[in-house]
Design brief:
This protein has 607 residues and is of the alpha/beta class. Among the domains are: 230 residues, Rossmann fold (3-Layer(aba) Sandwich); 133 residues, GMP Synthetase, Chain A, domain 3. The chain has a nine-stranded mixed beta sheet, sandwiched between helices. A five-stranded parallel beta sheet has the order 4-3-5-6-7, with helices on both faces. A four-stranded antiparallel beta sheet has the order 17-18-20-21. α13 packs across α15. The radius of gyration is 25 Å and the shape is globular.
Length: 607
């Protein structure tokens, strides 16, 4: 463990801009380790100090300067998380350019739309195969004027030979660049346009200023102490504003180290290798680990399973007692032993050094939070939107209510408006949507508060999200049903990969369920069905049993949460087939269109 935790926070006024933040960091701790990543070529972990990072930024600045760009021009980046993401962004910002991040696994037509909508003059892209996928979607369009492929190789060289726009980074970059000084710039000026993948229609470009993001990073640090000795493990895409603020600008402000995970599949090994002290993740990551623990427990003797349950229960009691929400309990006498025998081995598999694990981007199921907190993982849930740069609220470790999304960051005001909508005001609210005055006007109230679209209540400063205004299903009897919590509960069943609850304008609820392709063959055989035959999915006995299973899972919900019919499929909803956004949210309108016939059948059967 680290013996000494020390703070080295750069004030917002000193940084002034995001590139000023880097400049200040370079001069404060030039020789400290800034970034760590796995080099696939040498199959070894490598690292860069702040000074070495600055040397690279100087090269990229020189290359960008040679492209006849003017301050205010847009440049796009489509890379996996790696030091070059940060280096390119810093080089661009220091020249007054505006960065437009693209999702690595977004559909080509979406990425092409963004490049044209923002007039991106330069695109930095990971490899030749990604450019080959994207180029046809761009066609004869004007932008980008220059394409820089990061990874060298035979394919990249071939592309560079016959397309004059294309260059390989190694050839585009000079040997070295000139040192530079911190520029004088308006903190309110535009720093980045981040396209949010709406669940309806084309993505909208959220305009965020330098001050928006700096204010958000600084306010986040006032809620959760971060030190120079901290190591962040970065694995959410940097194109996602939560990761960009939380695992890039914030650690730069605090002088912490960022290590880039190799992939989600290798996360377990990377946690062991890097032993991070802070991670930021979406609930899906915690749900996966939760599911793995549950699966492993299934095969263990009953005594061990009971011991594990007891440990989680006792750890939770201890957590509630330390939070000042309950008194002493006799089970706490067992806690030192249970912690050593049960909790610690689980935490060791997460690296054994985590001071804080932050979950955001979607609601965290309470049962998942309870398990990890019961095992003494310091897990807190937060909440935000790209439009708020992005964090609005987070649970402090000392006042952690896992069923809430936390308390508002310092400097951010919240209120409950019409329809119980959570509304936000503060220095982190976006400048507006790029090229879209109508959408911008709709996003703000007449007195200047940003509408989140989420329904909420506030108790003891904590915000509880209760639903989403757009997703509320209104049944034909006027009953209003928020489907998100029900879908989240059903999604914890290992048989269920994806689920969508329906019922808008109907007299009862139904659900479309994407079954786990791994578990389906075994399930089909249990019913004497052929897993390869499509009609097996509509076997009456199977549907009846699964419906019962769903009703049991939703037993704690109010009376309205009764699903009467289900339709099963094995076809997953993906970004490629247009049923998921790049941030893995279900596009409800598209799913409704895709399964129109199946939905009509479910409602017809009932009459």
């Amino acid at each position: 463990m680290v013996k000494q935790w020390s703070e080295d926070l750069i004030p917002v006024e000193r940084a002034c801009t995001l590139d000023g933040l880097f400049y200040q960091r370079l001069h404060r701790s030039p020789d400290r380790k800034a970034y760590q990543w796995f080099d696939r070529a040498t199959e070894r972990w490598r690292s860069l100090s702040w000074r070495e990072t600055a040397d690279q930024v100087a090269r990229w600045r020189a290359a960008l300067s040679a492209e006849a760009l003017s301050a205010g021009d847009r440049v796009a980046v489509l890379l996996r998380n790696c030091p070059e993401w940060v280096i390119f962004d810093q080089a661009a910002l220091s020249l007054g350019l505006i960065t437009v991040p693209l999702y690595t696994d977004d559909r080509a037509d979406n990425a092409a739309h963004i490049l044209q909508d923002a007039d991106c003059k330069v695109l930095l892209i990971q490899d030749a195969s990604r450019w080959k996928r994207l180029a046809p979607a761009i066609g004869e369009a004007l932008y980008p004027e220059r394409v820089v492929i990061l990874e060298d190789g035979e394919q990249s060289r071939r592309l560079a030979t016959y397309d004059e726009r294309v260059m390989i980074a190694a050839n585009w970059l000079p040997e070295r660049g000139e040192p530079w000084t911190q520029r004088v710039a308006d903190p309110q000026s535009l720093a980045t346009i981040v396209y949010t993948s709406g669940t309806t229609g084309r993505p909208k470009g959220v305009m965020l200023s330098h001050r928006n993001i700096l204010a958000n990073a600084h306010a986040s640090v006032t809620m959760l102490d971060v030190y120079q000795e901290d190591v962040f493990l970065s694995f959410l895409p940097l194109s996602h504003m939560l990761e960009r603020m939380g695992s890039y600008y914030l650690p730069m402000m605090t002088g912490s180290t960022v290590a880039y995970a190799r992939s989600i599949n290798q996360l377990a090994e990377d946690l062991q290798m890097i032993r991070p002290s802070v991670i930021i993740a979406v609930p899906r990551v915690f749900e996966r680990v939760y599911q793995r623990i549950q699966d492993q427990l299934q095969g263990r003797p009953k005594l061990l399973r009971s011991l594990f349950k007891l440990a989680v229960r006792t750890g939770w009691i201890d957590f509630e007692r330390r939070q000042g929400r309950r008194g002493w309990h006799p089970l706490l006498l067992l806690w030192p032993w249970l912690r050593r025998k049960v909790a610690r081995p689980v935490l060791e598999r997460l690296g054994g050094r985590l001071r804080a694990a932050v979950s955001g981007g979607a609601p965290l199921p309470f049962g998942v939070a309870q398990l990890f907190i019961g095992l003494e993982l310091p897990l807190v849930q937060g909440y935000g939107l790209t439009e708020t740069s992005p964090v609005v609220a987070v649970n402090p470790l000392e006042d952690n209510r896992p069923d809430s999304v936390g308390i508002p960051l310092r400097g951010i005001q919240v209120r409950i408006g019409a329809d119980d909508e959570l509304q936000v005001k503060g220095p982190c609210n976006m400048l507006g949507y790029w090229n879209n005055h109508v959408a911008t006007a709709r996003m703000f109230t007449t007195d200047g508060w940003l509408r989140t679209g989420d329904q909420a209540r506030i108790e003891h400063r904590h915000i509880f999200i209760t639903g989403r205004i757009k997703d509320i299903l209104v049944l034909s009897n006027g009953e209003k049903v928020p489907p998100a919590d029900m879908e989240m509960t059903l999604g914890l069943d290992p048989l269920v990969d994806q689920v969508m609850i329906l019922g808008e304008g109907r007299s009862f609820l139904t659900a479309i369920i994407v079954l786990s392709s791994e578990l389906w063959p075994g399930l089909a055989r249990d019913y004497g069905l052929d897993p390869n035959q499509a009609e097996s999915l509509s076997n009456p006995q199977l549907l009846r049993d699964l419906l019962r299973r769903i009703r049991d899972a939703l037993a704690d919900f109010p009376g309205y949460a009764k699903v009467r019919r289900i339709s099963l499929t094995l076809e997953p909803w993906t970004i490629e087939n247009g049923l998921l956004t790049p941030t893995m949210k279900t596009k409800r309108t598209q799913v409704l269109a895709e399964y129109k016939d199946a939905i009509e059948r479910m409602y017809a059967e009932h009459h």
